[in-house]
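Input record (Table S2, row 326):
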Amino acid sequence: MQRLRRLRRTAALRGAVAETHICKQKLIYPVFVVWGEGKKEAVESMPGVFRYSVDRLGEVADAVLDAGIAGVMLFGIPKEKDETGSGAYAEDGVVPQAVRFLRAHCARRGREMLIVADVCLCEYTAHGHCGVLRDGRVENDASLPLHAKAALAYAKAGADMVAPSSMMDGVVAAIRAALDNAGYPHIPVMGYSAKFASAFYGPFRDAADSAPQTGDRQSYQMDFRNGREALRELAADEEEGADILMVKPALAFLDIIKEARAHTLLPLCVYNVSGEYAMVKAAAAKGWLDERRIVKEILTAFFRAGADLVITYHALDAAAWEEKGV
Ligand SMILES: [Zn+2]
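Output record (zinc ion complex):
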């Protein structure tokens, strides 16, 4: 008689037939870098997450190296914001400084980590939009050279990979061309290919101080009602030369992840965003959820759906728990 319960009898049996595992080498930890010195500021809506000034990054770099996760994704909060987000592409801006610091820190320790730089303008523009504004509208094509300039500044500083997150059409191609022309053909581009306009980004905007001052991002980020359109976005990034594709957010978009996996041969990254993290932390703080079990279940779901890489604020905790087998 068929008895599916036979293989669930003991933990050893269940472990032996488990189909999906969280692999810590596939986890990326997002890091917020703030202009200034001696800063480690707690992000209120994201317990356990901090904004570090460059000189304090050693602490988080050591945690990442010791955890054995893939590496970090950097977001910058500049000294000053302006209309064109010049802090994003200044060669002595906060992200290039952070990249150089992390490179040197890893070299001193004789260790390696993946340093990925997010490329966008929203943390750097006074209006908080991801591109330049003209008559209140975000200009697509005028924004592209600025993204390309930022990506190049990060590559020059020593970033391993750049990841444009603005959802401007053609941004991957613009960055690819700029990198190739400047002698960085070896630096991969990870597109935030299917990035949905989402209420799950709320806490991030606190952390990165990047909320739009007027309007919202629905004219460039995707409508969460659309699945087929997400596949078009993924295909467009692939055509433009992206090396890795991304779906963001992750938890409410598992169907998109699964579809994306079926439609591309490229590695697929998912971003387990700030709101997803905040919900878990808030419920766990109230004793309503078991944080370890819920995080394991959520991260496993991403891999089961087809993700190759997961960007998550839980990365350091999840790696430590895996290590201890909890
Ligand atoms: Zn942005």
